[in-house]
Predict the 3D structure of the following.
Amino acid sequence: MHNDVFSRSHFVTVDGVRLHYRVVEGPADSLPVIFTHGGGPGSTAWSNFRLSAEAFAARHTCYFLDFPQFGGSDMVAVEGPVFSWHARKLLGFMDALGIRQAHLVNQSFGGCVAIRFAADHPERVGRLLLIGSQPVVRGVMQPLPLFSKHAATLMSDYYLDDGGPSLAKMRALICRYELHDDRKLDEENLRLRYEASCTPAYRDLLALPGAFGERESLMAVFARVRAPTLIVWGLHDWFGGIDVPMLMLNQFADARLHVMGNAAHHLQSECPAEFNALATTFIEGHL
């Protein structure tokens, strides 16, 4: 059922950077939903959220945006603080498409960009949904595993070691870092992620010093996030415990936290029915 949802592929240029996005048409009388993706190898908004497209498109037109350095968007260097730079591209994307306001549904890295965007442009955000996002440079109660010696070279290991990208390496990466139950791996998502990772232009970025921008902590702007926010967390999320989302819950103006016990980092892929029911209820204002 989910694989039959039709999406159209488009491009738009923002600040000289060509951005790729997909659209699933929905009713025109409600705010659109913009989906953004995580930061792992081969991530795209469509592969991260294709299992949610049908549920959301029943009531909203859905946009699946690839940030620069991902998917079909340009492989260009980030200049300055990383989340702020991408948030400006998100603003330009909405301006270029004439989207006055939208709900934002975001995986991991995309959620950090969305937090920066919501703090800077509160009038452009309807509701904000974050999955597994870590918008700080260190944990509150413990170090962030993402910056440990076991994960600091995650991207370069995938792209440069043992002959570069492969389907087997992508399968191992997703199972190790993103899922709690390896049996929940979606084979179509695996294929899409692997194909999106096979780009020589990304390897060129890895060889360019500073190409991924400066690390940025968003803790100072948490209190400026005014949009109703749902933070969704997998109990087995490898990238961090519950301390960071609890901090966001405490400091955002209007937030709630939902923890899924049998899921990890990509819970919308691991538990799509549960996630879609929760997320659409929230987006419709019933949570």
Notes: Residues 2-283 form a domain with the Rossmann fold fold (CATH 3.40.50.1820). The chain has one domain: 2-283. DSSP finds eleven helices and ten strands in the chain. The mean pLDDT is 95.
